[in-house]
Amino acid sequence: MLLEDLQKWNSTKRGPRSNNVFNARFRQYLQIKGILPADGRLPASAMPSVVEAFIDEIRDGPDITLPLMDWSSELSSLWNKELILLLSQEFFQ
Fold it and tell me: Which of 24, 67, 70, 80 is deepest in the core (most CB within 10 A)?
């Protein structure tokens, strides 16, 4: 990494982003879908056996009608990435 890149990276603001209209609508959408917690607790998680069957290509992936994150895995997990893709597509339609 070049020194200029490092200095730029270090000066980048981190933390909460501004509450613009897009962010507010997306948060509202995620709350309606049950992805964002309403009361501070994590929403229901996908069953490990269902996630495992999806990874093993035995079963279909996440269902957009009842979206359940796999809270026991990272957001970059195969299940969670698939669900995030589905949610993003539906939101932008």
Answer: 70
What's the pTM? 0.74
Given its phi and psi angles, is residue 14 left (phi above 0), alpha (psi -120 to 50 degrees) or beta? Answer: beta
Say whether 67 sits in a helix, a strand or coil.
coil
Give the residue among 24, 35, 19 at the shortest CA–CA distance from 87: 35
Residue 26 CA to residue 33 CA, distance in Å, equals: 11
- Token pair of 44, please? 């229901």
Q: Kindly report, residue by residue over 37-90, the tens digit of the pLDDT.
A: 877 787 899 999 999 999 999 999 999 999 999 999 999 999 999 999 999 999
46's tokens: 């996908």
SS3 6: helix
User: In 3D, which of 22, 56, 54, 16 has the Cα closest to residue 68?
Assistant: 54
